Amino acid sequence: MGPGQTTAELGRVQGAGEGDRPGLRAWWAGLIGSRLFVVWAERRYAAAEEVDEVLDAFGLVVAGDVLDVVAAVLAILFVRRLTAMQGERAAPRAAPVAPMPAAEQTG
Fold first, then answer.
1. How many CB atoms lie within 10 A of CB 40?
2. CB 10: neighbour CB atoms within 10 A?
3. Quick check: 21 and 100 in contact, CB under 8 A?
4. Are 67 and 33 within 8 A, CB to CB?
5. Which of 60, 69, 96, 103 is deepest in the core (most CB within 10 A)?
6. 57 neighbors 40 (Cβ within 8 angstroms)
7. Distance (Å, rounded) from C-alpha 6 to C-alpha 84?
8. What separation in angstroms does the CA of 82 have from each of 14, 17, 33, 51, 60?
9. What is the pLDDT of residues 26-68, one digit of tens each?
10. Which helix (H) or strand (E) element contains residue 74?
């Protein structure tokens, strides 16, 4: 089951509709956007011939790396929310655990 299916299923079970679909969409949009930008920037870098062109393209490659970091942060936020949703779903099913008796002291 992929992240989209898991999110939808958890949302359905919890009565939350689609779960954290906006988080999933933000993560994927960030990931795809950053990848497309990096591919474009790397092509500009490879085609650069003058020093100014190389420096400009290098700046774009660095900006692409920053977009990758943003996409990674979005992924972390999504996974944390998904994990919290799974914990909320599992909590009612968890059996209560009786406390362990204190060990008797001999002296």
1. 14
2. 20
3. no
4. yes
5. 60
6. no
7. 12
8. 12, 14, 22, 46, 33
9. 888 888 999 999 999 999 999 999 999 999 999 999 999 999 9
10. helix 51-90
